[in-house]
Amino acid sequence: MPFGDTFKALSDPARRQILELLKKGPLSAGDIGSHFDMTGATISYHLKVLKQADLVFERREKNYIYYQLNASVLEEIMLWVSGLKGGGTDAEGK
Amino acid sequence: MPFGDTFKALSDPARRQILELLKKGPLSAGDIGSHFDMTGATISYHLKVLKQADLVFERREKNYIYYQLNASVLEEIMLWVSGLKGGGTDAEGK
DNA sequence: ACGGTATTTAGAAAAATATCAAAATAGCTC
DNA sequence: GAGCTATTTTGATATTTTTCTAAATACCGT
To answer: Is residue B29's beta carbon less than 7 angstroms from any atom in nucleic acid strand D?
Structure first.
């Protein structure tokens, strides 16, 4: 939650790729895993990190767990980064 | 450079705080260090990570090395995050 | 309830990261 | 050049992260 967790979650390539996959729509853990050369356990771990960072949420349906992107937290990241860009006291240099 | 390095660099709280300090203007390594409870060596390490991620650059002057924010890379981060948000069911490929 | 599939949890090992103290480098000023 | 001050590099250690295998849990259909 502390927002630092979000950057931490985004710092791993696999997790970023998972988010990109999810961009197209919800996927089950298994489907996500099929895109990677990792065991299901590892995928599950990454999913947990993403979940804890509030970047995704899950929806249980039938025998599957579908993961879905949670766009709301991305807004905070945008704000922080944008704040860094805009915050110069005087110099522009662009 | 590979852009994944940028997220990696941003994933550490101390490094993010350094960037926030730099937002107000250039600072020497020593000045930066005075805001933290870490040795100069550790600050130097973080500065190196930031530098390698192109998030800051240095300017040598007199006996000091001044560190300065490099806004250009932040743009890429914004784009990536924003792409994640905007990507509905049929977002553009990449 | 049983057998099967999907996913997670536990425990351990490997790899990467953060940190420090001590030594090295760089660039003053005299 | 000698002596300072600022910063980095080196080498070591502690912590954190990633990953695996094996075992556990969850949920479905019959």
So the answer is: yes
A58-62, B32-36, B85-89: which has the highest mean pLDDT?
B32-36
Nucleotide nearest to A63 (CA to C1'): D27
Contact assessment for residue A18 and residue B21, using Cβ atoms and an 8 Å cutoff: no
B19: number of Cβ within 10 Å: 22
Q: Half-sphere exposure of residue B93, counting CA atoms within 13 Å on the CB side?
A: 0
Reported as a single tens digit per residue, the pLDDT across B43-62 is: 999 999 999 999 999 999 98
A41 vs chain B: nearest CA distance in angstroms? 23
Nucleotides of D under 7 A from a protein CB: 5-11, 17-23, 26-29
pLDDT beyond 70 at A60: yes
CATH says A4-84 is which class?
mainly alpha
**Residue where the block lists tokens 């990536």:** B80
Residue-by-residue DSSP string for B3-21: SHHHHHHHTSHHHHHHHHH
Q: Indicate the domain borders of chain A.
A: 4-84
pTM above 0.85, yes or no: yes
Phi, psi of B38 (to 5 degrees): -140, 160
